[in-house]
Amino acid sequence: MSLTAYLKSFPLTPSSIIFALSGSFQLINGALSLLSPAFIAQSQQNLNISSIPALHLIGLTSIANGAFYVNAACIRDRRIMYWSILGRAIGAATFAKNGGVWTTFAYFEAGMVVLTGLGLWFDERFGKEKGTDEVVGETVEKGKVA
C-alpha cells in the first residue's frame, strides 16, 4: 500500500488531528483554571493577574473555544480551521505587542497558525477530500454554493 493510499484511508486528517489536540489542550487548561486552586495560584503569578474571576473567565473561554475546536476537528470542518488561522494570527500579534509573559502565548499562537496551515495544505494536497470542503457530513465542491 502506497503512502498516499494509506493516508487516504486514515479516518482523521492532519488538520483535524492538529485542531483536536489544540482544542483538547484548551479544554484541559480551562478545566484546570476553574477547578485547581494550585493552577489558579500559578496562573496569577505567571500572568500577573490578581483577579480570580478574570482567571475564571479565561478558563470558561478556553473551555468554550476548546469544545468548538474539538467539534470542528471531529466533523473535519476546514472552513472553521481556515478562519482560526486569521484569529490566531491576530491573537499572536496582540500577545506579542503586550510583551513579557504574553510573548510565550504569541509564539504558541504563531506556531498553531503554521501547524494548522501546514495541516490544511497537506489535506488539500494529499487528503481524501482533495478539492472539497467537508462540513457536517456533506461534501461541497469548491466554488459552488450549496
Question: What can you tell me about this protein's structure?
Answer:
The chain has 146 residues and is mainly α. The chain contains 6 helices and 2 strands; from the N terminus they run ααααααββ. Helix content is 75%, strand content 5%. Strands 1-2 form a two-stranded antiparallel sheet. About 8% of the residues have low confidence.
Overall body shape: elongated
Content of β-strand: 5-15%
**Biggest sheet, spatial arrangement of strands:** 1-2
**pLDDT averaged over residues:** 84
Structural topology:
Layout: H1 3-9, H2 14-35, H3 37-47, H4 52-74, H5 78-98, H6 102-126, E1 132-135, E2 138-141
In short:
By secondary structure, the chain is mainly alpha-helical. It has helices at 3-9, 14-35, 37-47, 52-74, 78-98, 102-126, and strands at 132-135, 138-141. The chain has a two-stranded antiparallel ribbon with strand order 1-2.
